[in-house]
C-alpha cells in the first residue's frame, strides 16, 4: 500500500513538471471574426530558431492577407483594441530582422477559406521576462487583416481592416492539428 502511494505521488509530480515545462514553451490563440465566429487556431512552440506558429484557418475570405502579432491582448471588434504591431525594439515596419517583431509573411488563403500553415518568427519569444516575449503585461494578440502587407508603409504595412483576432495565451491547445505533409 505504501509503495503504491509513493508511486502515485511520484507519477503526479512528474506529470505536473512535464505540464509546467510544456506550458512555458507553448502558447495558443483562438481566432474569431468580427461576428464572434471561430475561424481558426494558432499554436506557438518555442524552438532553437525562434517561435514556430502553426495556423489552422477555416472560413476566412480568399486572397493574400497580412498576418501580425499585435501589442495588446484584447480582441474587441473591429479589433482596434489589439493595438499596433508588437514592436518591443521600436523598429520601422518591414520584413525580416529590421522590421517589427510582430511582422510576419503574408498568408495566401485559398478559395475554400481553409489553410494550414507554419512559420517561424525569430524576433519573438515565449520566455517570460524577455523584452520580446509575447507574454507582456497587457498581453498580445494575433491579427489577420483584410489586405496584404506591403512591408513598406509605417506603421502597419497598409494592410487594411482587421478581419480576425485571437488573444495569445500560455500553454498548448489540442485544437490545432499538425499540418499535413
Explain this structure:
By secondary structure, this protein is mainly β. It has a single domain, classed as Sandwich (Immunoglobulin-like), CATH 2.60.40. 13% of the residues lie in helices and 32% in strands. It has 1 helix and 10 strands; from the N terminus they run αββββββββββ. The protein has one helix at residues 2-24, and strands at 26-33, 38-47, 50-58, 63-65, 67-70, 107-109, 114-121, 141-145, 162-167, 169-170. Strands 1, 2, 3, 5, 7, 8, 9 and 10 form an 8-stranded antiparallel beta sheet that branches. Strands 4-6 form a two-stranded antiparallel ribbon. Strand 1 and strand 2 (38-47) form a beta hairpin. The longest helix is centred in the N-terminal third of the chain and has 23 residues, at 2-24. The termini are far apart. Mean pLDDT is 84; it is low at 4-23 and 176-181.
Topology:
Blueprint: H1 2-24, E1 26-33, E2 38-47, E3 50-58, E4 63-65, E5 67-70, E6 107-109, E7 114-121, E8 141-145, E9 162-167, E10 169-170
Antiparallel strand pairs: 1-2, 1-9, 1-10, 2-3, 3-7, 4-6, 5-8, 8-9
